[in-house]
């Protein structure tokens, strides 16, 4: 390790900080890293590992990951090397942080494609996957996987496939999934319908509420519209077991009393709740940028009780912004209490967040994005102080020294997170 009489005399390596003791100045690895002060690195178990060993004939796109039942993980992706079929990998994360995964299985029918698949775990080791079967104007498909139902010892990640259900068409955007109590699940998507005017359509935000049985059957309960506007870039975060926030890019809202007045809704959030077998969407969304356009990639996450964070790429100013919103637990009224503030200059083709990256009693935000100039994958961590309603101590860290084609992350608890990704290389 580098040593000297004062910190000004030495230069520490990456992931190291100078500290002064009775023996003089010394470089010490930062928390979470091991090694000497000149060559600090992540512990071997926390270094990137191939999710699928020997996968040279695989090309993953549209990666999405979920965590459920405390430590179970499911990863889905589109395999562009095999005709854009959909694949799923299931596994566990042990207490020491070591992840163990089963071989991949195809969840699409032979010769069928899966674009922008999303996955959600449910009680009873049920996993639901939703995707569209074409890049443009594809059908919406949902399928259930039951894990560990064979009764064979050591086969707790073995899949028994349940029902496949088609539930919409003309889909060109990624959908969003959220699990709900009583074996229920909501799928949110951009929809279209014919109008009374000949040869015209209306676009809107729609959702399907379904029940998933222990045997893997899907029962559609109903459809519930959550927006009367064109929507895309859908993301969700749960507030409670039965309520959640929908983040979206939506078309402008026109004032009903004055058609010349519009409100931009490109960074909008909608409160939703599951009540008596129905989805209830609050009619008053919060709009973080009511006067701006070109709001692109985004992520949303719960950070404290009745408080969520919303990060997004501003395509006009070319920076990443972060806002904090509080939800009244009784009226469900949403109020912007911090931001939007710039946390990073530059462009990133993805911006997303991890929910509750530390704990509910120690609120933080965690945004992951790409540094296009340095060609590295980054995280931005900020402290949220509920009493003062301030974001402080924001720091940026590289977690991977390369650019990614696709990435998705989840929080495992205990300060640990899991990322599934496909490098550009």
Short note summarizing the structure:
0% of the residues lie in helices and 58% in strands. With 425 residues, the chain is an all-beta fold. The strands form 8 sheets. Strands 4, 5, 6, 7 and 8 form a 5-stranded antiparallel sheet that branches. Strands 17, 18, 19, 20 and 21 form a 5-stranded antiparallel sheet that branches. A 4-stranded antiparallel sheet has the order 9-10-11-12, with no helix packed on it.
Describe this structure in words.
The chain has 425 residues and is mostly beta strands. Helices cover 0% and strands 58% of the residues. It is built from no helices and 31 strands. The chain has strands spanning 3-4, 16-21, 24-29, 60-68, 72-79, 85-93, 99-101, 105-106, 115-122, 126-132, 138-147, 159-171, 176-180, 184-194, 201-212, 218-223, 231-240, 243-254, 262-275, 278-281, 286-287, 295-304, 307-314, 319-327, 334-345, 351-353, 364-371, 376-385, 390-400, 404-413, 416-423. The strands form 8 sheets. Strands 4, 5, 6, 7 and 8 form a 5-stranded antiparallel sheet that branches. It is globular, with a radius of gyration of 23 Å. The model has no long low-confidence stretch (mean pLDDT 91).
Topology:
Elements: E1 3-4, E2 16-21, E3 24-29, E4 60-68, E5 72-79, E6 85-93, E7 99-101, E8 105-106, E9 115-122, E10 126-132, E11 138-147, E12 159-171, E13 176-180, E14 184-194, E15 201-212, E16 218-223, E17 231-240, E18 243-254, E19 262-275, E20 278-281, E21 286-287, E22 295-304, E23 307-314, E24 319-327, E25 334-345, E26 351-353, E27 364-371, E28 376-385, E29 390-400, E30 404-413, E31 416-423
Antiparallel strand pairs: 1-3, 2-3, 4-5, 5-6, 6-7, 6-8, 9-10, 10-11, 11-12, 13-14, 14-15, 15-16, 17-18, 18-19, 19-20, 19-21, 22-23, 23-24, 24-25, 26-27, 27-28, 28-29, 30-31
